Hints:
The structure holds two protein chains of two kinds.
Chain A: E1 2-4, H1 12-21, E2 25-27, H2 34-43, H3 50-64, E3 69-73, H4 81-94, E4 100-104, H5 111-122, H6 127-154, H7 163-177, H8 181-197, E5 207-213, H9 215-219, H10 227-233, E6 236-240, H11 244-256, H12 263-268, H13 281-293, E7 298-304, H14 308-324, E8 328-333, H15 339-360
Parallel strand pairs in A: 1-2, 1-3, 3-4, 5-6, 5-7, 7-8
Chain B: H1 13-22, H2 29-43, E1 48-50, E2 53-56, H3 65-68, H4 70-74, E3 83-85, E4 88-90, H5 96-106, H6 112-131, E5 143-148, H7 151-154, H8 163-169, E6 172-176, H9 182-189, H10 199-211, E7 217-223, H11 227-243, E8 246-252, H12 258-277
Helix pairs in contact in B: 1-2, 5-6, 9-10, 10-11
Amino acid sequence: MRITFPHLGNAYIAVESLLRGLGHEPVTPPLTNRQTLERGSFHSPAEMCLPFKISLGNMLEGIDLGAESVLMIGGWGPCRLGYYGEIQRLLLEALGKEVEFITLEVPRGNYSRYMVHLQKLTGSTKFDHLRSGASLSWAKLNALEELEILALQTRPREKKRGATTGYLQYQLEQLRAAETVQEVEEILSTASRGFLRLRAREQNRPLRLGVVGEIYTVMDPFSNLRLEERLGYLGVEVVRTISLAEWVKNHIFKKALGLYSLAPLRRLAAGYLRGFIGGHGLESIARSVDLARKNLDGVVHVLPLSCMPEIVARGILPRVSRDHGIPVLSLMVDEHTGEGGFQTRLEAFVDMVQRRVGRLGK
Amino acid sequence: MGFEVITSPPTNQEILELGLTACVDGACLPLKAFVGHVRFLVNRGLELLFVPQAISVVPGEYTCTNLLGLPDLVQQYIPSSVRLLSPALDARKGAGKISFSYLRCGLEFASALRVLKAWQTAQAAQRQVDTAPKANGSTGRGLNILILGPRYLTDDAYLNADLMGKLAALGVQVTAAAAFPDSITLPASRSLAKRPFWTSMRRSLGALEHCLHRVDGVISLAPFACVAEAMQGVMVAERTAKTECAHLELHVDEHSSPVGLVTRLEAFCDLLERKRRG
């Protein structure tokens, strides 16, 4: 079956391997670009959030490339993402696109529908084939995040401006083409040496800023206007608090086994939030406290316009900032976010943090 | 339970202003109004403020995500001299959990017997409100309109710019989704491919399925920038288009003008009348 799927950062590299392992042909839509967003927005209700519009655009572009099915994740709340697939299915249907919609979610009620989806996905694949596909995909997911983190550490220290981004792109392409777990490991070890070579010898300690917020807008460079890259060029080492591999481990494997606990996050957010508020709201608060304790220089909070849990978090973050003495910048993104204004705000924030660090004599 | 109770009046200009000037931007209109009510009450000098954390009121469903973080958000806007009383209402694992949570919350202030009695009185009072026949406008023009939307909008005449009153003045019979009990909306929502997991959305869509062939038109009322309502809008539009039922979407925020609303309602009613005449 020819299957397309929405983008999330560079995760397509891992998804492609997984689908191949399942015996399907992945139809990867072109990397999210202005046109994707415009198409997605055109067919979405105005008030849907940015991730919804972009993923709808991805689906439409995948269908243009000849996909017969669309793969999407689902859920049962309270995050509205759980219902996105259903709405996108209706919208595609209304557009006359004849595609099969496969939603991956924990079954509830309606088991037959779920079994049909699962059967279509696994089809007649041999177990061995499936296992090797899954382990390759998992290795790639971990590797690509590791590569991205290496790039984040290298960018503020690079000798030649822009070299890191180019090198990362090159290694990601290698990773995409890798066919065995061993190859993936080789790429990773070459890359970690390669990134070291890009660094300048003598360096002042770069500022370290943590990024928290809603997972899609944090992970997807198109939706956050390449936030991590911009900060890197301003001489900032970005510290990620969200990892897709970690998310998959916690929310798909551990949760299914009932092993996932919010207690550590809840402890960190004590006094600010009493518990889960949907989406990544609790994480945003807890991780900000954590970053402050780890003595980072500041926090950047990213959220899509109208994201309810993150708006609650945004209302509480100023207090975290005051209590823990850590500067916080909240950035709301949507399809109208202008690059110029975005860049100005980042520069002003970085300047402010820089001056503050100098004053405190850190 | 022996408390002196202070409640805020129905939303008005002053209350909304209080909310608008303090509440985090990006929040929806009802949330801003809620913060306004909180600030209004705090100014009246009270010691204890009751803001429950309503996580879920029907098993297997959630309320709006904003309500999950409501007490924590409200905490930002009250002085430390005011204590928040926020029992967690979580019916995901059974509706009985809600009573339990209320009772446990009350035990701090009164004896078990007294709390239990107070809870029963409260329930009886709520039932009376829920089952009271609602003034549904007039039947002057013989038009029937169903209003979909969350209760904190359909029931708040200030926030919805007196939508019900305006429709009544136009001679229309109005029913809100909230008027249908779960015993009607739950089975009706089963026909959907995937059951919505927010109570308000499931209730609205259930009411829509139930009324689709009995009303002339449907109005969805939603706060601006509410994604749950935007999704509901897509589903309502799909259902109403298939059954040729007229549908009007209204989004409200603090910048909405009542004048524009009247024009749209008049146009909508004229359209319904013409459609009925064929």
